[in-house]
Amino acid sequence: MIKPFTEPEVRWGVLGVGKVCELKSAPAMNTVPGSKLVAVMRRDAAKAQDYALRHGVLNWYSRTEDLIADPEVNAIYIATPPHVHLELTQLVAAAGKPVYVEKPMARTYAECKQMIDFCNVAGVPLFVAYYRRKLPHFIKIKELLDQEEIGVVRTVQINLKQALTPTLASQNETNWRVIPEIAGGGYFYDLASHQLDLLDFFFGKITHATGFSTNQAQVYLAEDLVTGSFVFENGVIGTGNWCFSTSALTEIDEVVIDGSKGQIRFSTFGQGAFILIKEQGKPVHFHLQLPKNIQQPLIQSIVGELLGTDTCPSTGISAARTNWVMEELVKNRIA
Question: Contact at 8 Å (CB) between 76 and 14?
Fold first, then answer.
């Protein structure tokens, strides 16, 4: 059972205050009512201090245990690569502090389940940074789907292709996303996780999934091509094609939802736009403004849940489902 959060405000500490904390996430903690960023940690003490000074954060640390033990900190955001999410979640949960962890939730579904167990035993909530669930254009798409603006949904197709640039091809400490022992997989785990979680938000959990993966370009160890199909609990059937070694001419980021009376098309990583196409009439173009700090709406929902005024839509339970689907899709590895 989750223990009540009894403090009047959420005072955040951040473990692993790196690039994602510059604009996307941590700065939003000071823009949400009832929320404040009070401490940051990074193993490189100079970088931790630099971040604290630039962002007006009072306390900074170079050791994980020091930030977790800080009595001013009553909730912790784990902003590290996935390979330490399990260990850090265990430590934070044992300290009795709510956990907010970056995506993907962990390297494996088994690690996700352990994280859920640690938090359940400690009685603390577990949230995951699948922030697209709270972005305005995706909330609008869900509204349209729930109102059956395109009729009964039949299928959904994901098509994501990126060219193999020198940056994407590099395998080093600064590009941990293609090192499986750190990330769990390659760019599929980094990017498709957002897409699959978003579809879970739209349609509910995926109950069946199967696919193939391979490493065609052979420039790093992780998979660079994944294809697969999946079935949602409500009967919608989906397919996906993810390639990270394609030509620049064929780059695409598109999700197409087909219904009995129309279609919705959008890009997962775009700027708040999507298209509604119905049998009668012209296509309707939507463009909703995205927040400056992209995680702000999700963080606001976390703060609201802790303070008893809202509910966060991205939990350890929902995020673990995405890890399960990814594992099923990459399971059949072609040499």
Answer: yes
Mean of pLDDT over the chain: 96
Q: Which of 30, 61, 27, 28 is nearest to 47 (CA)?
A: 61
Q: Show the domains of the chain with their CATH numbers.
A: 10-131+295-310 (3.40.50.720), 136-290 (3.30.360.10)
| Residue type at 204 in one-letter notation | G
pTM for the model stands at 0.96
- pLDDT-derived band at 173, boundaries 50, 70, 90: low
Over pLDDT 90: what percentage of the chain?
95
pLDDT score of 116 = 98
Q: Write out pLDDT tens, residues 188-199.
A: 999 999 999 999
* Sequence-ordered list of residues with C-beta below 8 angstroms from that of 22, at least 6 positions apart, any chain: none
Per-residue HEC secondary structure of the chain comes to CCCCCCCCCEEEEEECCCHHHCCCCHHHHHCCCCEEEEEEECCCHHHHHHHHHHHCCCEEECCHHHHHHCCCCCEEEECCCHHHHHHHHHHHHHCCCCEEECCCCCCCHHHHHHHHHHHHHHCCCEEECCHHHHCHHHHHHHHHHHCCCCCCEEEEEEEEEEECCHHHHCCCHHHHHHCHHHHCCCHHHHHHHHHHHHHHHHHCCEEEEEEEEECCCCCCCCCCEEEEEEEECCCCEEEEEEEEEECHHHCEEEEEEEECCEEEEECCCCCCEEEEEECCCCCEEEECCCCCCCCHHHHHHHHHHHHCCCCCCCEHHHHHHHHHHHHHHHCEEEC
pLDDT band at 133 (very low <50, low <70, confident <90, very high): very high
- Burial class of residue 307 in the structure, from the number of CB atoms within 10 Å of its CB (0-12 exposed, 13-18 middle, 19+ buried): middle
